[in-house]
Specification:
Blueprint lengths: L2 H26 L10 H18 L4 H9 L1 H27 L4 E2 L5 H12 L8 E2 L2 H40 L1
Antiparallel strand pairs: 1-2
Helix pairs in contact: 1-4, 2-3, 2-4, 4-5, 4-6
Amino acid sequence: MTPTGWVELAAGLVLILATFYDLFRSIVLPRPSVNRFLLVRLLFFGFWAMWRWVSRRIQNPARKEAWLATFGPSAVLAMFATWALAFMLGYALILDGLRSQIHPMLDNFGESLYFSATTIVPLSYGDFVPTGLGARLTIIFESATGVGIAALVITLLFSLYASFQAREEMVVQ
């Protein structure tokens, strides 16, 4: 493996671990997170600033309130998309570092990203085959990550819906 491959491997591993940490602190942990470093936190600051900027340009109060009410659901979807993209990018970096263990050999980072994207959603077409142990383990972990993210997303959405329904029932009473 080349020195560049080692750097890609390390960068991909750091990105994947940081994303897992963020996912754990944001969804799995049953209490609010007090840690300052969260990828989602960075996303929300920018996302909320953009949302607020658009709302300030809406003159009609009802339309403005309707626009602001869409922030929560949109932010949740953006959060899931950010995690999925971070995982895809992290695994693509690792696969690019292990390109000699994949047949046919990946020519560039774009092919590594394609291979990663088709693996995380267990959709692989078989146009690339991992031949080395490191690449095979990476593919197994990436597929498991994709299935795990889907399970967490579904679970969180049901939980959020139940919380919203309970809140609405309290408001009606």
